[in-house]
Amino acid sequence: MSTLANGIRHLPDYLDRAAQEHLVELIRGIVAEAPLYVPEMPGTGKPMSVRMTNCGPLGWVTDKEKGYRYQSFHPVTKKPWPAMPQELTDLWERLAGHPKPPEACLINFYSDDAKMGLHQDRDETDLSAPVLSISLGDSCLFRVGGLNRKEPTGSFRLSSGDIVILGGEGRLAFHGIDRIYPGTSTLLRNGGRINLTLRRVNS
Ligand code: MD3
Ligand code: FE
Fold it and tell me: Do the beta carbons of residue 65 and residue 50 sit within 8 Å?
């Protein structure tokens, strides 16, 4: 375990191969009910390169017209998000140190050339709750900076089975994904990277 400057904890290889495979099976079931969709930047409508879906009572979505928000249903199918698997709630209870359960699990899928620009996560009402991130599949280069976009950033690699807990001051740190390293994991048959972020939205 390593604690970065601002309360960001990195737990390398926290999940063993069997646990990773089990999560991939759960995600396959979720995606069958709630397909990955292409999110759009607010205002411009520019498509993001990462595809997304969610499970749990709430899901994070974005589109050109209404921008970043949490809502209880899939933006394309309009159906409620699939339930949060107990396995994810258990991980949150073990690692998050937060009294209330997670309300949203955002599922990000990165193909070989996908990336995510530097941003803050601040669409949640309860910013005292941490965000818990689980990486599956190909490795990536994760970038994290300070509370101001201008502050210097550092980067490190996230690999399959790694968990990162973003709490305390680090909760509002700027962060992003610079690149995927294709072919670095055999977990996903067709390659790519999945990131799960468990979030508490409401106080
Ligand atoms: C640092 N996802 O969905 S997870 C996101 O790998 C997001 O898909 C990235 O950023 C991904 O918003 C990074 C790690 C992460 C998540 C939330 C954070 C790092 C964070 C919140 C504050 C600081
Ligand atoms: Fe983020």
Answer: no
Sketch the domain layout of the chain as residue ranges. 2-199
- pTM comes to 0.97
Q: Which two tokens stand for residue 81?
A: 């998000």
In angstroms, the CA 71 to CA 96 distance is 23
CA of 176 to the centre of ligand 2 (A): 7
CB 131 within 8 A of CB 199: yes
Tell me, in angstroms, the distance from the centre of ligand 1 to residue 173's CA: 9
Residue nearest to atom 17 of ligand 1 (CA): 131
- Using a 6 Å CB cutoff, which residues line ligand 1? 106, 108, 116, 121, 131, 133, 144, 164, 166, 170-171, 173, 175, 177, 195, 197
pLDDT at 142 over 90: yes
pLDDT range class, residue 189, cuts 50, 70, 90: very high
Q: Which ligand is nearest to the CA of 195?
A: 1
Q: Is the per-residue pLDDT at 5 higher than 80?
A: no
For residues 14 and 134, give the distance between their C-alpha atoms in angstroms, rounded to a whole number: 9
Classify 2-199 by CATH class: mainly beta
